[in-house]
Amino acid sequence: AQSVTQLDSHVSVSEGTPVLLRCNYSSSYSPSLFWYVQHPNKGLQLLLKYTSAATLVKGINGFEAEFKKSETSFHLTKPSAHMSDAAEYFCVVSMNTGFQKLVFGTGTRLLVSP
Amino acid sequence: DAGITQSPRHKVTETGTPVTLRCHQTENHRYMYWYRQDPGHGLRLIHYSYGVKDTDKGEVSDGYSVSRSKTEDFLLTLESATSSQTSVYFCAISEGTFLQETQYFGPGTRLLVL
After folding, report:
1. CA dihedral of B98, B90, B33, A30, whole degrees rounded to 10
2. Alpha carbons A50 and A34: distance in angstroms, whole number
3. Cβ-contact B37, B45 below 8 angstroms
4. CB within 8 A of B6, min separation 6: which ones?
5. What is the rounded distance in angstroms from the CA atom of residue B96 to the CA atom of residue A83?
6. pLDDT tens-place string over residues B8-53
7. Would you give the DSSP letter of residue A29?
8. Measured between CB atoms, does B40 come within 8 Å of chain A?
9. Which residue of B has its CA nearest to A105?
């Protein structure tokens, strides 16, 4: 069965420093993986997705993630944090069982200080 | 935003009353989903639909029913609301070809059951 583990419930960075949000997945076959972002009191916005093409995936707002099959990881990175990046981030794995079933991680809250 | 709206956006109700949440999409997507979001759980699938009058259960469907009489509308009903159904509810659609789908989410409905 597919599962997702987000290794940190909270990550704090200073503005201008790099961001690393960690995600490990479990899947019995080659998965589709996503990162979504949720700003306070908002819906979920797609940041990026991996679907078995290039292992380094670039998303919106300068974020990128690298799919590492040997480590079963899909960590999200950004070279330089901005105050507007403060939000909750969800790593998601997709199961295709006749319909697209998404399995969500429990989320990582990113705090950005001036 | 994939043309998804949800109504109402906020609702307060009393235990035992029926509640219906509406999801409306404007782009003729076949698949629609209802999720609930609770702290520490990410998003969990309640029900989904794969066409008009075609629906099925997700992982947390107890106490909920759905209907889809038109492509554009997917209704979620709490027949007799309980305090455990206090949550934020998100509707989603999926687009893309098989194994390449991506889900896009509505703005959410915040429900408080007293």
Report:
1. 30
2. 6
3. no
4. B21, B22, B23, B24, B89, B90, B91, B106, B107, B108, B109
5. 33
6. 999 999 999 999 999 999 999 999 999 999 988 889 999 999 999 9
7. S
8. yes
9. B42
Is A59 exposed, middle or buried, given 0-12, 13-18 or 19+ CB atoms closer than 10 A? middle
Query: Which residue, B114, B88, B86, B71, is CA-closest to B34?
Result: B88
- Nearest by CB to B108, from A34, A43, A100: name it: A43
Name the residue type at position B9.
Answer: R
Answer whether A105 sits within 8 Å of B42, measured CB to CB: yes
Query: Parallel, antiparallel, or unpaired: how do β-strands A10-14 and A108-113 relate?
Result: parallel
pLDDT tens digits for B65-101? 999 999 999 999 999 999 999 999 999 999 887 777 8
Q: What's the rounded Cα separation, in Å, for the pair A23 and A97?
A: 23
